[in-house]
Write a structure and sequence with these properties.
The structure is a single chain. This protein is of the alpha/beta class and about 400 residues long. It has two domains: about 1-190 and about 375-395, Glycogen Phosphorylase B (Rossmann fold); about 200-375, Glycogen Phosphorylase B (Rossmann fold), CATH 3.40.50.2000. It is about 45% helix and about 20% strand. It has helices spanning about 15-30, 70-85, 100-105, 105-115, 135-140, 145-155, 170-175, 200-210, 225-240, 255-260, 280-285, 300, 305-315, 325-335, 345-355, 360-375, 380-395; strands spanning about 1-10, 30-40, 45-50, 55-60, 90-95, 120-125, 160-165, 185, 215-220, 245-250, 270, 290, 320, 335-340. Strands 3-4-2-1-5-6-7-8 form an eight-stranded mixed sheet, sandwiched between helices. Strands 11-10-9-12-13-14 form a six-stranded parallel sheet, with helices on both faces. Helix 9 links the parallel strand 9 (about 215-220) and strand 10 (about 245-250). Helix 13 (about 305-315) packs across helix 16 (about 360-375). It is globular and about 70 Å long.
Amino acid sequence: MRILFLNHNPEWSGTFFRIFFLSKYLIRYGHNVLMTSISSQKTSRATLKTIDGVRILLHPRLSDIAVGEMPAHIMRGFLNAYVGSASKFDIVHSTTVGCPTTGLPVPAFKIFQALRLRDYKIFVDWDDIWGRDGFMSFTHRGKIIEIIATILEEKVPLCADHVTVVSETIRQRALSVGIRPEKITQIPNGANVEGIKPLPMLQARKSLGLPNDDKILCFVGNLLISVDLLLRSLKIVIRSFPNTRLLLISQLKTDHLRKITALNLTKEVIPVGVQPYTEIPHYLGASDILLMPRANNFIERANFPARLMDYLAAGRPVVATALGEVERVIRESNGGLLAAPDNPEDFADKIIELMENPQLCDELGKNAREAAENKFSWQIVTKKLEKVYINVSKT
């Protein structure tokens, strides 16, 4: 099949990972795939590149604030509509349609389809909540932006022949806006078992210049919501294990640094910052325990952090908040311990329990890697999506 994926994120950011790995394995399974994304650097030119066999069309990026550059998002929406009409595809699959870059092309595809100008099947991937109760309201983008995101997110999927969702919570939202159950399939994020493998801990620490004797915790991801839980838990842990260090592989803002200072954690927190994806396995391998704190709100229950699957692939035990898909994956993999929501004391207790029991750490880490390979790999997830494509194409 000839497949077009539309993605709104810059290269190597956010949903890019989800679409890149799906594209990579669809190509291995014999399909022809083109994915669109946004340049990671400011530029007014589009470029075409190939990574691991995946052809990626990078649209221009006119601002450092990708979500805030609404005119550019609209422009890229028209560009994506043109890409979908200029070539023949069997599947056009648009992600995160609450964003105009990927939302606006879908009604155009529907018109092309209705006029028999194109005979592709239209898919929408709902992997996060942007509009009502979602990130646009949480990050205070303004009422107009929130309304636009809500309309796109809840109306555009009605144009699709099929909707893929990342979580049960989003499946319920899709049902609530009028999408029929038989038109919805849950496609989770997968584990990159080829690119991330268990590493010898001391070797990984040596490569990063980290001490051998410290207890090292690691968090990778967005600190937008979970920073308070993370830091307050660490504050409790260091009472029992003063030699604990926390690697923060995240974009740290001034507010985060203030909180670290206010809690007197400047010695214990190592602000690594955002790292290239190829470097992430070294940080995971250098860590004793990987952390997945979640705030108890609708956004966190709805999404499915791709980094959780990287954690499993790394073969290290995970401590996570018992919410949404994170709770399901930890229970199914038996690869970590779950803490009660809104409870830094319980989160800290779970970390301490693992620190006091190296044998349990090893056992859970092995379980995590085994589940990543046999239940949650991108190969398995992509096969599920391929089957959906084939079934919908027959209708």
